[in-house]
Amino acid sequence: MHREEEKIKEETVKYKENRNNQTKKNQTQRKKKDVRTVNTRTERVATVRRKDSNIRQGARSEKQVEDAWKLQMQQPQKVEKSVQCVVIGGGAAGMMAAITAAKKGIRVILIEHTGRLGSKILQTGNGKCNFTNLNMNSSMYQNGNPAFVENVLSQFTVDDTLAFFETIGIYHKNKNGYIYPHSETAASIQEALVDEVNVLGIEVLYQCNTQTILQYENGYQIHCIYKEEKLGAQQLAKKEKRKLNEADYLQYACVITTDTLILATGSMAAPKSGSDGSGYVLAQQLKHTIRKPLPALVQLVSDDIYCKTMAGVRSTGTVSIYEAQKCIAADTGEIQYTDYGISGIPVFQVSRYAVERLAQQHEKMEAHIDMLPDFTYEQLVQSVDARIILPSEAEKTVETFFSGLLNRKLVKALLQKLQWQEMQQIKTCSREDILALLKMMKDFRIALTGYKDYAQAQVCQGGVVLEEIEAATMESKLNKHLYFAGELTDVDGKCGGYNLQWAWSSGYVAGFHASQAVKTS
Q1: Given this model, what pLDDT does residue 48 score?
Q2: I need a labelling partner for 93 at 20 to 30 A (CA). Which of 28, 133, 373, 407 fits?
Q3: Interatomic CA distance for residues 438 and 339, integer angstroms
């Protein structure tokens, strides 16, 4: 045991030394790059001045000069780049893929179409980032292909995830198997990954929109347009007390030649974070099949009038999804009752099954809610029988009588559905009425008429079909040296860190095998 500890310490020291050396090397490269960038920008300024002179010579008025400049600004400058690996998508899976490939010594460009890497990470776990789970197995994924998921998860396990994050400064906290950063802030995860991207010298193209991908014999050619902030733009905007606008950026039409390509663009869930579904289009350009994306881990909608009565209540319950009187999914936890329907973790866990069928316009989808999962029906009957014979209890209204068991709003909704008078006393109820009320507490039914959209969904179901991807490498079966990672694929997990673990595992596998392909080609 002592030898193993010594070995771990030695390996840690060695890793830190290598990382420091790599950092110094990258800093030197960045300094050289900065000098080149300044020179390049100086050349651009000179070019702009020449254009201005030419425009003014050919123009007859200031209006013509202004119009000519507007036309000139719409023309992006052309740039060409060549690397060994391009990763499109700067989320959790994309950063993991880029970091893994770069650590293997290959040159990587990371394309992100927003101005920030890892935006969606910041939203996870209510800002605390539940980034994996100790209870990890393929049953936590709902894609119908557990063998595929198991293959990928086995190559980069939960232990590997914890070890990786510890090497970049993220220690973890275990809450009943749910793993959070010790700081309990999602920003810690996002910042650590971005720092590692920078340390490894990975070039990041921000605000970069990929337009087309062309495949050729030895790799891929990516045509994209990206923006770069002008020199002094921040200072000028600050001086003028305004935010940066389009005039503060230079635009480039870029052609990138690469040996390998990793698509990790995410899905359509949470579009504010940058997930706009553009990856599906790119995958289709490369002849891949997309299973229709639909929201998953999302709120369910009902037009039942009782929803408004229950709105605002949070209560432990079991929600079961029924189709044609058959239960297709169920989960227990804190249900959130809203004016539009139901929400909360247990609703999210079963939502993908309801959404899938609602999207196909299946008939009569219902949610059956057990409002008191801690009690059996028989226990409730015995409890009521024992209390109702007490004079002080018999005088109470039905709502008050059950207020120690259920939130008053829930009792009120039950009474409305049974068409009872709101202030009815318990002693005036027949035994049959009371038994009907208790049965409804254990099986309250609301019709499901819809679901919230992508803006409210945490993840999507659907994506690139797994039959066209090799599980052992995450490489396309249709295109050599094309890899996939993350939510773009047809894999969606339950709440609890499972979707992020899929991002880490699939990102690692894609990045590792892309680097191996470069080395062996």
Answers
A1: 46
A2: 28
A3: 24
What does each C-alpha distance from 114 to 94, 235, 302, 508 come to in angstroms?
A: 13, 22, 35, 23
Q: How far apart are CA 501 and CA 359, in angstroms?
A: 28
CB atoms within 10 A of CB 300: 26
Neighbours of 43 (CB within 10 A): 10
Q: What is the DSSP letter of 221?
A: E
Rounded to two decimals, the pTM is 0.84
DSSP one-letter string for 172-200: EEEETTEEEETT--HHHHHHHHHHHHHHT
φ, ψ for residue 295, nearest 5 deg? -60, 145
d(Cα 394, Cα 428) in Å, to the nearest integer?
9
Residue 400 exposed, middle or buried by CB count within 10 Å (0-12, 13-18, 19+):
middle
Per the listing, tokens 């740039």 go with 79
Residue 342 carries which side chain, given as an amino acid letter? I
- How far is it between the farthest Cα atoms of the chain? 102
> Are 186 and 122 contacting, i.e. CB atoms less than 8 angstroms apart?
yes
**Region 480-485 average pLDDT:** 98
Amino acid (1-letter code) at residue 6: E
In this predicted structure, what is the pLDDT of residue 279?
Answer: 96
Say what percent of the chain tops pLDDT 90.
74
Q: How far apart are the first and last CA of the chain?
A: 42
DSSP states of 120-131: GGGGGGGGT---
* 227-233: average pLDDT: 88
> Do 498 and 464 meet the contact criterion of CB atoms below 8 Å apart?
no
Q: Which residues contact 519 (CB under 8 A, 6 or more apart)?
A: 104, 106
> For residue 283, what is the enclosing H or E element?
helix 278-285
pLDDT of amino acid 37: 42
Q: Is the pLDDT of residue 55 over 50?
A: no
Alpha-carbon dihedral 52, 223, 86, 148, rounded to 10 degrees: 150
Region 396-410: mean pLDDT is 95
Identify which has the larger pLDDT, 63 or 386: 386
Cα 47 to chain centroid, rounded = 43
pLDDT band, residue 376 (cuts 50/70/90):
very high
In this prediction, residue 7 carries a pLDDT of: 54
